[in-house]
Specification:
Blueprint lengths: L3 H9 L13 H7 L2 H9 L18 E4 L5 E4 L3 E2 L7 E2 L8 E6 L6 E6 L5 E6 L9 E4 L4 E4 L7
Antiparallel strand pairs: 1-2, 1-9, 3-4, 4-8, 5-6, 6-7, 7-8
Length: 153
Amino acid sequence: MLRWIDVLTYARYSNPEPPRRVNLTDQEWAAQLTPAQFRVLRQQHTEPPYRNAYCRSYEPGVYVCAGCNSPLFDSTTKYHAISGWPSFTQPLTRSAISYFFDDSHHMQRVEVRCNVCGGHLGHVFPDGPAPGGLRYCINSESIRQLPPPTDAR
């Protein structure tokens, strides 16, 4: 389980090594993503609060990066944080997310990106529920939800 000290250590020193890397040009990303996804994932924009696809959705499944389909979060870690954006307590794996200090907009935050393609996902804060205390505040445009696997009996 990741804790705030782990997030700060990754942001300060070195992020976990991803299982693979996806490197595309801006033109290739623009052709693959919707304009809204491109603004969020590649230009670090933020979508409006409460008017996004996954803010109030609690269906079971796995959330993947909208850019490269890398698994990021499980729906069991999603909770209602009243922030206006989907919130999660933990990433699916330690190597799913990369962390960077962000002092834009006169705030000090930790930005989270997909560790495979570098797409901007949102930010992580130390005010989440126990036991980890993390709140990953994620843009819906940066993720897609896949349904849980069906039982093939």
